[in-house]
Amino acid sequence: MPGSAPPVVIIIGRPNVGKSTLFNRLIGKKLALVDDQPGVTRDRRMGDAIVAGLEFTAVDTAGWEDEDAETLPGRMRAQTEISLEGADAALFVFDSRAGLTPLDSEIARWLRGQDVPVVLVANKAEGRAGDGGIYESFALGFGEPVALSAEHGEGVADLFDALWPIIGAKAEAAEEAEAAAALDEDEDAPLGPLKLAIVGRPNAGKSTLINRLLGEDRLLTGPEAGITRDSIAVDWLWTDKDGESCEVRLIDTAGMRKKANVVEKLEKMSVADARRAVDFAEVVVLLLDAERGLEHQDLKIASLVLEEGRALMIAINKWDVAGQASGGSASGLFNGIKGALADGLSQVRGLPVLTVSARTGKGLDTMIGAAFELREAWSKRVGTAALNRWFDDAMEANPPPAPGGKRIKLRYITQAGTRPPRFVIFGTRLDALPKSYERYLVNSIRKSLGFEAVPIRVTLKTSKNPFADQGKS
Ligand code: GDP
Ligand code: GDP
After folding, report:
1. Average pLDDT, the chain
2. Using CB atoms within 10 A as the burial measure, which of 136, 207, 354, 425 is most buried?
3. Ligand 1 pocket by Cβ (under 6 Å)
4. Which of these ranges, 149-153, 165-169, 215-219, 386-390, has the smallest mean pLDDT?
5. What is the pLDDT, as a whole number, of residue 9?
């Protein structure tokens, strides 16, 4: 649905002016991981923001400028420029206590040449300590700044006043569209762009893959692990084999940053990264490096994605060299990884495992096609009649046990939701039902009803006491 997405507001400014603080304030959460390791401190860069009821997507650019200042500024700036392309407004933040610096003026000059409405924000303006900087800032050419204190939450109403004329209409349209979609049963509405996240350890080739898909240098790539550090969403049209254009929203996470010297901490952060990707994504591609195979951390990430109920697929990257290097035993490598996955991830049996080469592009069309199919299954609803036919068959084939001579009664099943598929089984004496029988039912749902490759949730509800339910997956 064109025009129904919330407006995007990008937060720009030199380091230390309070961009991340403002971002956190706008999205109303304390998301930033605090860490004194340069380059690993930064957190999610997109979030659902709300200012006095005005809803938009906020993008934080903190960290794009202040890392590796010697070698990367131009590339970092290129990233900001790309993000500006899709933005509906820019919040240009300066530090009103510190006053203007040459860098502020440079950013201002550059921003004036961009095609985006700019709201100048005088941050750290609590008390009156910012007054001098506020007057000075008129020289930047963006009019009167919005004086606020990101840290203390002051000045939010003024920010609303400044943003409303720019993004208000789009925000309202998005809200209406959302309300309309909520009225429709979710699975009847068109699915919209496929929200696809690429996760994996540093150097698995995530950035190369996304650049290859998009056909342009959207993301920084390089041999240094962890050089892409942010979640970035890019809308893209993929052409399927019938020549139809399909919308894809690609989410790249900075992924699984792992530098030799900070492995411990980064282990934790990489999981946090995957979790963030999962927030945005319907389907998650876990990219493996064929030259390294399946590592413990991959399994951890995969489990997390499944626990969060997202559809997961595995793509083994760098197949261009893996095939050659292993002297023809590529299929051995493939089967080895598949086996290790089956052992390590008991939750889901039929995970799609594909081989790709981000470098040559081989296998990528198949991968995207498979991702669309996976989303189909993840979004599928089985009618109650068909579901209960399966249910009766499953119980006839393997009746529930009768602990202490009293049979456990399973009465019926409904599908309570989709994305991921959720089922509720009603019955009596369900607390006595052995785990093994639940597993039997879950596996049978997967196999018989076409949910093999996606995580499903099954809840048991005792008919007598509807509140005594337990979540299962
Ligand atoms: P970024 O590099 O632009 O993302 O800046 P940060 O959000 O990391 O903030 C830089 C420093 O400014 C931190 O020490 C913040 O606590 C501080 N800061 C942010 N907002 C305010 C504010 O409104 N008032 C004051 N006094 N300090 C702030
Ligand atoms: P990221 O950290 O996951 O984003 O990984 P990058 O995209 O930066 O890639 C890491 C390294 O692997 C780079 O040197 C890439 O050129 C290389 N690479 C990525 N994909 C492939 C591939 O399909 N084949 C080969 N041979 N190398 C690749």
Report:
1. 78
2. 207
3. 13, 15-21, 62, 123-124, 126, 149-152
4. 215-219
5. 93
Ligand 1 mean position, distance from CA 259 (Å): 27
pLDDT reported for residue 329: 66
- CA distances (Å), origin 396, targets 364, 393, 400, 401: 43, 5, 9, 12
Return the structure tokens found at 76.
Answer: 């970092």
Q: What is the pLDDT of residues 323-352, one digit of tens each?
A: 665 555 677 888 888 888 888 887 677 789
Q: What pTM was estimated for this model as a whole?
A: 0.56
CA of 45 to the centre of ligand 2 (A): 23
Q: Which of 10, 12, 16, 41 to mutate to test the pocket of ligand 1 (most atoms within 8 A of CB)?
A: 16
Ligand 1, atom 12, lies closest to the CA of: 18
Separation of CA 103 and ligand 1 centre (Å): 17
Average pLDDT rounded to a whole number, residues 369-395: 90
